[in-house]
Amino acid sequence: MIQNETEETEIRQPTFSIPNIFTPNGDNINDFFVIEQIPDIESSHLYIYNLSGRVLYEKMNYKNDWNGNHLPDGVYLYIYKFIYKGNEFIRKGTLTIKRR
User: Fold this and answer.
1) Once rounded to an integer, what is the mean pLDDT over residues 66-76?
2) Considering Cα of 71, then 88, then 64, then 60, what sign does the dihedral take?
3) What are the strands of the beta sheet with 21-22, ordered from one edge?
4) Domain boundary assignment for the chain
5) According to CATH, what is the number of the domain 21-97?
């Protein structure tokens, strides 16, 4: 009897940092919401929400170019969905915008 064995490999979410605060005050230091880029990410989708759940910003394949324009200082929620090695992952958290 011949047995056909297949090996399953679990793809784990890559480790990377997403900041919980940024300071878009025009001093060229920490002025953008910067998500550490991972080489093998195939696609991504970033959502920024207010605390009531309203979408305030949305971007496919985010390139670290959002400065929180038109939003007041405060706490917001983010969801970052991404495809890594063919698998979808989601990171969620809070984000503080502080200009002063």
Assistant:
1) 95
2) negative
3) 21-22, 87-97, 74-84, 41-49, 55-60
4) 21-97
5) 2.60.40.1220
Q: What pTM does this model have?
A: 0.84
Q: Give 56-76 as a DSSP string.
A: EEEEET--S----TT--SEEE
Rounded CA-CA distance 99/24 in Å is 6
Buried b (16+ CB within 10 A) or exposed e, 32-51: bbebeeeeebeebbbbbbee
3-state SS record for 25-67: CCCCCCCCCCCCCCCCEEEEEEEEECCCCCEEEEEECCCCCCC
- The region that residue 99 occupies, defined by phi over 0 for left and psi between -120 and 50 for alpha, beta otherwise, is alpha
- For the cut 60, the answer to whether the pLDDT of residue 54 exceeds it is yes
Per-residue pLDDT tens digits for 1-31: 566 666 667 778 788 889 999 999 999 999 9
